[in-house]
Design brief:
heterotrimer; A mainly alpha (115); B alpha+beta (234); C alpha/beta (590); A: 115 residues; 0% strand; C: 590 residues; alpha/beta; 4-stranded antiparallel β-sheet
């Protein structure tokens, strides 16, 4: 057994599962947004923001953002452990990635629920 | 005349590896790559490579032939030669000892890590342990592995993490014991595999399946291990 | 030599094939300081190529099977120079050894009732030859050797056996009393040469089929243990007895198992005739291997061979159907497609008798202790030297080995040697240390090669040796050809003694390994040739045109080849099994 401390779920199985579940959520979200855009050809700001004013859409979007964050973290963590062989470089990259993911996630939440 | 280009490196005399060109008159015969190497070695005795059974069951002569891993003894020139040229390199991803000989230490270590032996904590009967033909059939496509390392050394995940990712060969053997109705250590075996590297570094690109000289399918075995891990944990 | 490193062990096992690994397993469990020294990674050993199975009366196919019937077949198969105490030990201990293998995880094929699958093999009978064909060969499809070797290696890993993989044993080290106290060995990867000290040295080095140009044997089968023992002055037994397997793939020499005929395949000549019905009306294609091989050669010589040159026959399997071939003989189908370009589902496989197995070897008792003769011709144990497997001559195979008996030999006598050495170590073994000059003596030929500055090439000399053996000591032999062969070998020995090792580098120098192997091939070839010339009769695998009959009055004996004088003597065959009546020699028909 290889022990790790920097991956997301502390086990390969949970990482793997998170990766798959988040992918499904992201796929559904993408399909929904694309379909929405197709069915609303003359889309204006009012319609668009009213969509996001509804609670279910906010929850759905939040779920998608969290999925994106988790998916990105698992995926990029894997990439760093594959290609970055120097420990300081790899750790540095992982810190940058996790900060970025955190910032984007919080930013996304404030966009959704902010004024 | 067949043009043969071979990776050469002798740690005692060469500061860096290089490709050496040979020419061989095959007299139109469809030789095996190993025959070619033996003929060249009769002339240039310094050429080093491993070989033993010369019939594809011992797994000694895995190498990279025109870009694809395989066993030299059962790969005929007609299978592999393009434009009358044959390029031979050692298996990728492992340290080169000399010429076409690689240090298989990491590969064997990963094999040993999966505890490649039957474990059964019940007392053995006076005769054999019974096993139905159906249960025995589950081992087909698994036990035949010859440890040639063609699969693991064609796997990018193994190239990047040969110390952490078990690799297709080791995982195929791991599943060989997980699938054996006589083995009782399933839970212990699985608990050793659930980290992010051992099994989960497999990304399913199936290079292992494409090169296995015995026609085995490690990717399928890895999928089965993942299913067992999931079933075990949920 | 003072700068040479020394490694010390209680027991060193030279060879990582079936018998070596089985012996090692026994010793590893005992906690003795043991190592397996093998010139290849253990699973690359030639045991891996064994296909058909391991013959043993485990009473699975036939619940009434009896190890005594197996013993009878073995003695008869060996044309009555099988040592009956050894055959008794092997056949009666066999089931225990096979069940152990199963418990270790060997993936045997199965019958519907869950027991180990057994198939018919050549020379097998029920009820001492009276009850028809038996099915006694336990099989893991047609990959039994592979399954067995991997299982043994895996269990050695489990028991933390020490391995010196890719190390080459060069020569034995003897002390002033003539006891074997270790060996000189070379690490192939680095070229480092070390002195290995051990209280017990086990030769598990396998066969030497590479003395012939056409052989089913792996390229590594160069008789290293036989060569070492001969150079150390120890005698060899029954070296003229070489088995030619009926079904080597024509042109390639690759083996196709006797199990093909066990599953119902048969041989045909160019007229499509199942010719074995004429030579062995009862057993037909499942007669002893020597009988089938000779019959094939007769067909070819009488102009009924197949192909353009009429120099082979066909093995017909297509009538068995795709399902049986895929289930029971998958490896054969693969080999046939690769090496004969014939898919056995549709086309017959071209086959020819091919050198396969050395019945002779280092004479031992059932404990694996090597035996020599004193001046009066009495047996004497060689202190410190053991042998098991193909390198040994216990002798359970006599003049002709039965199919499936080699794997049983490996595990039964590997295990026996391991157990005996363990108890001997417990009782305490204390031999005189080797002196510096003893070690230097064992370094002699290594030094010779390293200092060579000119001479012929190893590859060319090897080819010449192989063609001499092929031409003069094949399936049928005769005085004048053999005389000539012996002469040519004597000349070749001189030239090999002056041959040139061009590459003197250290790291993974396979040229040096091949040079050292050539010396061993030379020793085995000469012992074979001289013993073959001396045995003036036809028995088992040794068939002479000039002496076509078995001569029990003079040759119901083992031959003993003494290397120092190049003399052939005789040794009594054991006719005293402990628990059954002696099987008296009879005319051998199938």
């Amino acid at each position: 057994m290889v022990t790790n401390i920097t991956n997301l779920g502390r086990s390969g199985l949970s990482d793997w599962l998170i990766q798959r579940v988040s992918a499904v959520i992201l796929a559904l979200y993408t399909v929904f947004i694309v379909a929405y855009l197709l069915f609303n050809p003359g889309l204006d700001y009012v319609t668009w923001s009213s969509l996001f004013a509804q609670t279910w859409m906010r929850i759905f979007s939040l779920l998608a953002f969290i999925s994106l964050a988790a998916h990105a973290w698992v995926g990029l963590w894997t990439v760093t452990t594959d290609y970055l062989k120097s420990t300081p470089v790899r750790l540095g990259a992982q810190v940058v990635i996790i900060l970025a993911v955190f910032v984007f996630l919080v930013w996304g939440i404030t966009v959704l629920w902010g004024a | 005349m067949l043009q043969v280009s071979i990776y050469r490196y002798n740690p005692e005399t060469d500061s860096a590896p290089y490709m050496q060109e040979y020419q061989l008159d095959t007299q139109g015969r469809d030789l095996m790559v190993l025959n070619v190497l033996e003929m060249l070695k009769a002339e240039d005795t310094t050429l080093a490579f491993r070989r033993s059974c010369r019939e594809g069951v011992c797994g000694s002569d895995g190498m990279n032939m025109n870009g694809k891993n395989g066993l030299a003894c059962i790969t005929s020139l007609s299978d592999v030669v393009k434009d009358n040229k044959l390029v031979l390199r050692p298996l990728p991803g492992l340290p080169v000892v000399r010429d076409l000989v690689v240090d298989m230490g990491l590969f064997y270590k990963q094999y040993e890590r999966i505890q490649p032996y039957l474990q059964n904590d019940e007392p053995a009967p006076a005769i054999e342990r019974l096993q139905s033909p159906e249960d025995r059939d589950k081992l087909d496509g698994l036990y035949e592995c010859i440890l040639c390392a063609c699969c693991s050394t064609s796997c990018p995940s193994f190239w990047w993490n040969p110390d952490k990712f078990v690799g297709p060969a080791g995982l195929l053997q791991s599943y060989r014991f997980l699938a054996d109705s006589r083995d009782t250590a399933t839970r212990e075996r699985l608990s050793e595999l659930e980290d992010p590297f051992s099994v989960f570094r497999c990304r399913g690109i199936m290079n292992c399946v494409a090169v296995c000289p015995k026609g085995l399918n490690p990717t399928r075995a890895i999928g089965k291990i993942r299913d067992m891990l999931l079933a075990n944990a949920t | 030599m003072s700068n040479m490193r020394t490694l010390s062990f209680d027991a060193i096992i030279i060879g990582g094939g079936g018998s070596g690994l089985r012996a090692a397993l026994e010793l590893a469990k005992s906690g003795k300081k043991t190592a397996v020294l093998s010139k290849v990674f253990p699973t690359r050993s030639h045991t891996v190529s064994a296909q058909g199975g391991i013959t043993c009366a485990i009473a699975s196919a036939d619940p009434n099977d009896d190890w005594r019937w197996h013993m009878y077949d073995t003695v008869k198969g060996g044309d009555y120079i099988t040592d009956q105490d050894a055959a008794e030990y092997m056949c009666s201990e066999g089931p225990k050894a096979v069940f152990e293998l199963e418990h270790m995880g060997l993936p045997f094929s199965r019958f519907d009732n869950g027991r180990i699958y057994q198939r018919p093999f050549g020379g097998q009978s029920k009820n001492f030859g009276e009850g028809g064909q038996a099915a006694r060969t336990c099989a893991a499809a047609d990959r039994t050797g592979h399954a067995l070797l991997h299982t043994l290696y895996q269990n050695n890993l489990k028991n933390n056996t020490t391995f010196l993989n890719e190390w080459f044993a060069v020569d034995l080290v003897k002390n002033a009393n003539g006891d074997v106290v270790g060996c000189i060995a070379m690490c192939i990867e680095t070229g480092e040469v070390v002195h290995v000290k051990s209280k017990a040295t086990v030769m598990a080095t396998g066969g030497a089929g590479r003395i012939y140009a056409s052989t089913t044997n792996a390229l590594i089968n160069t008789g290293d243990g036989i060569g070492m023992a001969l150079r150390a002055g120890f005698p060899m037994q029954d070296m003229e007895m070489w088995q030619f397997h009926p079904t080597g793939i024509y042109g390639a020499g690759v083996l196709v198992t006797e199990g093909c005929r066990g599953e119902g395949g048969y041989l045909v000549n160019k007229d499509g005739e199942r010719f074995m019905e004429r030579y062995a009306p009862n057993a037909k294609d499942l007669a002893g291997r020597d009988v089938v091989a000779r019959s094939m050669v007769m067909e070819i010589l009488e102009g009924r061979g197949c192909g353009e040159k009429g120099d082979h026959v066909f093995l017909k399997l297509d009538h068995l159907g795709e399902e049986v071939l895929n289930k029971r003989l998958p490896g054969i189908s693969e080999l046939s497609k690769i090496f004969a370009h014939a898919d056995p589902v549709k086309a017959p496989i071209p086959v020819v008798p091919t050198c396969h197995y050395m019945m002779g070897g280092i004479p031992t008792n059932v404990h694996g202790q090597a035996i020599m003769q004193d001046a009066d011709g009495n047996d004497r144990i060689v202190n410190g030297l053991f042998a098991c497997g193909e390198a040994a001559c216990v002798s359970v195979h006599g003049a002709n080995r039965l199919g499936g008996n080699s794997l049983l030999d490996l595990v039964v006598f590997g295990r026996a040697a391991g157990m005996f050495i363990e108890s001997a170590l417990n009782e305490g073994i204390d031999y005189l240390d080797a002196s510096e000059s003893d070690v230097e003596a064992a370094m002699k030929r290594m030094t010779r090669w390293n200092e060579s500055t000119g001479g012929e090439s190893v590859a060319a000399l090897k080819t010449e040796l192989q063609s001499i053996m092929q031409n003069s000591f094949g399936v049928f032999r005769q005085e004048d050809h053999m005389q000539e062969g012996v002469k040519k070998l004597a000349d070749l020995r001189g030239r090999i003694g002056e041959a040139h090792l061009v590459d003197k580098s250290g790291a993974f120098n396979t040229a040096r390994v091949e040079a050292l192997e050539l010396d061993n091939l030379m020793e085995v070839a000469e012992a074979t040739a001289i013993a073959a010339l001396e045995r003036k009769e036809s028995r088992g695998a040794h068939s002479r045109y000039d002496y076509p009959d078995r001569d029990d009055a003079n040759w119901l004996k083992h031959s003993m080849y003494f290397p120092t004088e190049k003399r052939v003597g005789k040794r009594d065959v054991n006719f005293k099994p402990k628990t059954v009546d002696t099987f008296e020699p009879k005319v051998r028909t199938y």
